[in-house]
Design goal:
- The chain has one helix and twelve strands, in the order E-E-E-E-E-E-E-E-E-E-E-E-H.
- By secondary structure, it is mostly beta strands.
- Strands 1-2-5-4-3-12 form a six-stranded antiparallel β-sheet, with no helix packed on it. A six-stranded antiparallel beta barrel has the order 6-7-8-11-10-9.
- Strand 3 (about 30) and strand 4 (about 35-45) form a beta hairpin.
- The longest helix is centred in the last third of the chain and has 9 residues, at about 155-160.
- It is globular.
Length: about 170
Amino acid sequence: RVINNSINHRNNFITLNKGRLQGVHPEMGVITDKGVVGIVNHVSDHYCTVMSLLHKETNISAMIKRNKFFGSLKWEGNDPNYAYLNEIDKTVPIQKGDTIVTTSFSTVFPANIMIGRVEQTLTEPGSPFFKIKVKLSMNFGNLSHVYIVKNLMKQEQEQLEVINKPKEDEQ
């Protein structure tokens, strides 16, 4: 159950009435039947806080469901109803109303969790990418109950993927 929530700051957080004793850990995804809510960031015995999708540091791997092209979704701090999908090549066909969902590239969210729909496709001079305005499927102003996602294979996936990351001194 949501016991505290903000939507009017640049960095919004949500407090839930579940914590460590109920199996909650940092970096677990939080969703509803309407879509992505955020990521657990701090946990006590009985509570946790969630870095909302409406937070400047939240960055979600997202894709256009129809054609599977993916990019990075961020909230820019203005309207709690919209976020922006970036890093989609300008050659990709995009239509207003296209569904935006999570990708399988994250250990936080399962693939195909609803995020929103394309509202507008913007172009920035000199950039090879679109900036896509996404109408979020979640209404963060009336959150009351959420689901916390536990990826049972997260540790195994992360251990395998760390093998391919360059070492700090090689960068």
